[in-house]
Write a structure and sequence with these properties.
The complex is a heterodimer. By secondary structure, chain A is mainly α. Helix content of chain A is 70%, strand content 0%. The radius of gyration of chain A is 19 Å and the shape is globular. The two termini of chain A are 31 Å apart. Chain B is globular, with a radius of gyration of 22 Å. Chain B folds into two domains: 107 residues, no CATH class; 272 residues, Cytochrome-c3 Hydrogenase, chain B.
Chain lengths: 308, 488
């Protein structure tokens, strides 16, 4: 049984990101009156990139080549530690801190490999990424810390299952979802924070840092970013899940998967209906998320959650 | 004399240059707007003939004089900045140096010239906090080549320098090679997105030289071609602006409507870009009851759908927040720099050749000029939206009562000798100026082409100062200037 759970989690970490990305692209297409690409299109694109040869600039060093692998590896491990099905396959106290800093490690290597190209574009991208990541990190920890306080749990497996008994719990849940949605947009570089579809290198954040990567390395970066996106979506889905694991493991996991899809459609819809923010306004959006996290903290304290 | 064309006998050039420059200053002081200032080789190789065209209260006016190349002249740019690009061009083409010009840099790179793109004297800013970002001449999208160098303090652009000229083809020399009556196909490719305006300006000047003015029906159908081009390009511009700010509904819907607009041109003249629409002496259209019905229904479709997407665009707070206050060019700056067309009107400058320089067509079928005052990207977007509405209304009035074009092209005639013909047409981007001059034998001796982009690029450079560097693409798209129209 344990082996089957592990196998299905690993499979989900590998396959789900492609479907989530495909679903987002589909949503965007439908909103703009197009039929859109097949759901598996991201897979075909990754497969195409893997078959290609990498091209390296003479200005780059080993950092440039290692960066994408670290991004992919940290995203994969992060995916294994996040409860994609709502229940954690692997868990240990304070695993959420590990996940957050695995992402941080991946980001650091991505920024270094961008700086390694000595391109002014990539330097600007790395500087923007560092700024927004530094602003988003406190929001992530405030949100997860509040949830830990409210539930008395210290691992993803428990802290996302906020019981809904008092109005305060509802506020904690809703505000945490709002904060995590912004975290998703920042971490996964989605509109209105970043625009994954743009060709304008001066406006990019994430995309500009991977401009010089090609072939399998580029595939690793795209894949890693999709896994991160799915992990964030799964956190939100688990928080929203109205069922409890006691309702039956399969039903609960199924509900979680449907909610991941709902989050993907929601994020895709936001991207379709809202223009991208000016870079100067991105910190304001993160500040809004910070406000949501603070409200969540106050509501959690009000209802007297057990200190973690 | 408020016609789009001016044809006059070439004046006697034997006047002291000091009188000429005094006259230029007087005209500017009297409120005339500089339309063009250019040189042409004189019979005496030591001299160059200068021509300045003004748009004054009672129509186009011309001042001419001959000066010695090696003496040059004292630059007017410091007093009247609108002269800056013309003086640089004059120096590059004819070697007549504008002394005390503050920004004497290459405009293009003519074959055999001394200047090379790699030696361009960029403005430098020194300092620890300053960094330079170089973009182009090869870009990430499929667009024309041009080099942009940003001098930034962090994310803020302190100064942008735009270096163009990569597409210089020697168009003006090329235009002198063929038969002057058969230049339309070449003229249409000078700046491919504003073909109709260039073709009309050429035909206008040519018809003035052969003294065969077109009738009103012909002029009306030419106007239909020009307004269709304007609608199509404004839609393309709006679609591009939406794509740049990731407002996807606008990007796809404006883009789709643009296809309808250019397909309508296809239906009438066989080319989506309006090639072949206008020819000397007439228009070349396959118009019958069926095509007019299709034209009317296509316009109705555009009108219906554009109202919906305009509502979404104007009401989306994220769009307004993204575009308002970004890339501002003040009215004063626009006037000083001599910006033209859409970019000038978005900054509150009232110039539109369609409302001033259109002769009988303008009286019979007037078009309303649209002006915005804020001078930012939002102004340039909403100006497009409002101009499309005006063009649609004008097209309705123009098509009503028209069934077939009156004149098929039948221009055969001799060019009048010793004449200078100047024509101005308001393309979607701004005024397109063609100046044709004949010699004593009635052959074409000089052809001057001027695309509005030549004057507006500096406006773009000015607009991004103190803006975020990430806002440059949207500023650029809001101006939507032509590289090849500048480089010729």
């Amino acid at each position: 049984m344990r082996a089957a759970v592990i196998a299905s989690h690993v499979l989900a970490v590998l396959v789900l990101p492609i479907l989530v990305l495909g679903l987002m692209n589909r949503t965007r297409a439908l909103w703009t009156g197009r039929r859109g690409p097949p759901l598996l299109q991201p897979y075909f694109e990754l497969a195409r990139l893997v078959r290609k040869q990498s091209v390296y600039s003479v200005a780059t060093t080993a950092v440039f080549r290692v960066g994408p692998l670290v991004v992919l590896a940290t995203a994969l491990v992060g995916g294994l530690l996040t409860p994609l099905f709502g229940v954690a396959t692997f868990r240990f106290p304070y695993d959420f801190v590990v996940v957050a800093y695995l992402w941080g490690l991946g980001r650091a290597l991505l920024m270094l490999s961008a700086l390694d190209t000595a391109s002014s574009f990539e330097g600007m991208g790395a500087s923007r990424e560092a700024t927004y990541a530094a602003l988003a990190e406190p929001v992530l920890f405030l949100t997860l810390g509040t949830l830990a306080m409210a539930t008395g749990q210290t691992s993803f497996a428990g802290l996302l299952h906020v019981a809904v008994q008092t109005p305060g719990d509802v506020v904690v849940r809703a505000m945490s979802v709002a904060a995590l949605l912004v975290i998703l947009q920042v971490e996964a570089a989605r509109s209105p924070v970043d625009d994954p579809a743009t060709h304008l290198e001066l406006t990019m954040i994430h995309e500009v840092m991977i401009l010089d990567h090609s072939g399998p390395e580029l595939a690793a970066l795209h894949y890693g970013s999709a896994i991160k996106l799915t992990s964030c979506a799964a956190l939100i889905a688990t928080l929203l899940n109205p069922l409890a694991p006691s309702d039956g493991a399969l039903r609960y996991a199924g509900a979680n998967l449907v909610l991941v899809a709902v989050v993907a459609v929601l994020v895709g819809s936001i991207e379709s209906l809202v223009a991208r923010l000016r870079l100067k306004a991105v910190p304001q959006l993160i500040l809004v998320a910070m406000g949501a996290a603070l409200v969540s903290l106050l509501a959690g304290t009000w209802t007297g959650g057990a200190p973690g | 004399m408020n016609a789009s064309r001016l044809c006059l006998a070439t004046p006697d050039l034997a006047r002291p240059p000091s009188d000429f420059f005094k006259e230029l200053r007087q005209r500017v002081a009297a409120g005339a707007r500089l339309v063009s200032f250019y040189g042409r080789p004189s019979d005496d190789p030591a001299e160059v003939v200068l021509t300045a065209v003004f748009d004054a209260a009672d129509g186009l006016m011309v001042s001419r004089a001959s000066i010695l190349r090696e003496h040059g002249f004292h630059s007017l740019t410091r007093d009247v900045p609108a002269f800056h690009i013309f003086e640089r061009e004059l120096f590059e083409q004819h070697g007549a140096k504008p002394h005390d010009h503050p920004w004497l840099k290459p405009v293009r790179y003519p074959a055999g010239g001394a200047a090379r793109p790699s030696d361009y004297p960029f403005y430098k800013i020194e300092g620890k906090e300053v960094h330079e970002v170089a973009v182009g001449p090869i870009h990430a999208g499929v667009i024309e080549p041009g080099h942009f160098r940003f001098m930034c303090l962090g994310e803020i652009v302190h100064h942008l320098e735009i270096q163009l000229g990569y597409q210089h083809r020697g168009a003006e020399a090329l235009l002198l090679r063929g038969s002057p009556l058969a230049l339309a196909p070449l003229v249409e490719t000078l700046a491919g997105d504003t073909s109709v305006a260039h073709a009309w300006a050429y035909c206008d000047a040519l018809e003035a030289l052969t003294d065969r003015p077109p009738d009103l029906a012909t002029e009306t159908w030419r106007g239909v071609g020009l307004e269709l081009e304007r609608i199509a390009m404004h839609l393309a511009g709006l679609s591009g602006m939406c794509a740049d700010i990731a407002f996807m509904q606008g990007a796809s819907t404006y883009g789709r409507l643009r296809t309808t607009a250019i397909n309508t041109s296809m239906l009438l003249c066989g080319s989506r870009l309006g090639h072949g629409w206008i020819r000397p002496g007439g228009v070349r259209l396959g118009v019958d009851g069926r095509t007019v019905a299709a034209l009317t229904s296509n316009l109705a479709l555009i009108r219906r759908d554009i109202a919906i997407i305009n509502r979404h665009f104007c009401q989306a707070r994220s769009v307004g927040h993204r575009l308002r206050g970004v890339g501002v060019v003040s009215t004063g700056q626009a006037l000083e720099l001599g910006l033209v067309g859409m970019a000038a009107r978005a900054s509150g400058v009232e110039i539109d050749a369609r409302t001033r320089l259109r002769g009988e067509l303008g009286t019979q079928l007037p078009i309303q000029m649209v002006v915005e005052t804020s001078g930012d990207c939002w102004a340039r977007a909403s100006l497009r939206i409002r101009e499309i509405d005006e063009s649609l209304a004008w097209l309705d009035a123009a098509i009503a009562g028209q069934t077939t074009p009156a004149a098929a092209p039948a221009q055969r005639g001799e060019l009048a000798p010793d004449r200078l013909a100047i024509s101005v047409q308001e393309g979607w981007r701004g005024e397109v100026v063609h100046c044709l001059e004949t010699d004593a034998a009635g052959a074409l001796r000089h052809y001057r082409v001027q695309d509005p982009s030549l004057r507006n690029w500096f406006g773009l450079a000015l607009s991004v100062r103190s803006n975020e560097i990430s806002d440059f693409p949207i500023c650029n798209k809001s101006f939507d200037l032509s590289y090849c129209g500048n480089d010729l």
